[in-house]
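Ticket closed. Logging final result for MFS transporter, sugar porter family.
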Amino acid sequence: MAGQGGPVGESPELFEEGQDFSSGKTAIRIASVAALGGLLFGYDSAVINGAVDSIQEDFGIGNAELGFAVASALLGAAAGAMTAGRIADRIGRIAVMKIAAVLFLISAFGTGFAHEVWTVVLFRIVGGVGVGVASVIAPAYIAETSPPGIRGRLGSLQQLAIVSGIFLSFAVNYLLQWLAGGPNEPLWFGLDAWRWMFLAMALPAVLYGALTFTIPESPRYLVATHKVPEARRVLTKLLGQKNLEITITRIRETLEREDKPSWRDMRKPTGGIYGIVWVGLGLSIFQQFVGINVIFYYSNVLWQAVGFSADQSAVYTVITSVINVLTTLIAIALIDKIGRKPLLLIGSAGMAITLITMAVIFGNATVNPDGTPSLPGASGVIALIAANLFVVAFGMSWGPVVWVLLGEMFPNRIRAAALGLAAAGQWAANWLITVTFPGLREHLGLAYGFYGLCAVLSGLFVWRWVMETKGVSLEDMHGEILKQDKTAAS
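Final structure:
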């Protein structure tokens, strides 16, 4: 989740011209199924966008309660992410994927049939746990089953699935809203359209659960649980026979232990937490503090506030999600060629420019009597263009690259625990940004100014602390991290 040659043990020669590509196709198929969790992740995260006003109207709640209802799934996601790695180390990656599929299914029906706001909150938290689990298990599994020469591209499938899920939810929301004549109008069986927005998630949840029965367990988990013959069979499918025994030996060496995996694995023998763990946590927090999910969770409300109708806002939201999908394809094409770090730096610069532009525009907007900003003429158009260019900058960089890095940057021994901690930090940051935004609707210039500052800081953070992982095998990651810690200490 690397373009030039990988180290001995994971042979990129399998993908050179004239070689057999069957193993590469197997890796792509397996990664695609695992990434379906990202589709549900994106759908569940964004589906609330089309139901925000309806939930507030139906249940008669204020902005504070609405913010909590919208952000409740993120609390579940943080809990799911924190525990998923440890559970995956005990029962396997595939079993955890199946659990996530069941949680998505329960959330779809529970939220769709909810008759009070706290029921919505409860089942959004259940779905959030599924999101958190999927956010950890997919990048870890994809990294552990991908040949290094295409690991970045396969790892990016997670983000492609996430943004496709966001697009799917926006498209389904718009279609259901159009069929019913409004999100709060009855559609089928007397249920309002906004309820069907949640119920529709049941279909991809069932598909994801069924397809998890068609993919093998992670070979690194199999080696860790002493199922070497099975690991050998999986690695043969993924990498072919070349250097197979060397690969297994090196995996064994990086996983060898007498005790059970625990959070203590993230501590260095000399004391303190491995620097790479803090880097992963920093990447996760910055990914959210640039405010990307404000665009997706509240875009309908945002664009109505600056003069667009409800239908126009829904159309612009779908267009924004399409842009997000297309720019993720740019990242997939570039990540194994130019590397992870350059993409992040380019993205930070683009996000900073566009967010600061939005901060200036909203900071100088006139305010209507109801407290909402007014952006007549060119200022509204510039704000819309800047918002979409921000999505372009994020979609080609911080969106996919952070997930790729989190899946591959940690050594085998601590991958699940460290990824779980980083993902939990990401969801906690996401929750904080999401729950505070309704109170900032009357101060959008300040909000976007803060996000722009975080974009600037994210670039400085990458420049100083992020290690390039292109071309580094998972088994070589431990040595690179030790060198990085020694350098930082000196």
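Residues 111 and 120 are 5 Å apart (CA to CA). No further action required.
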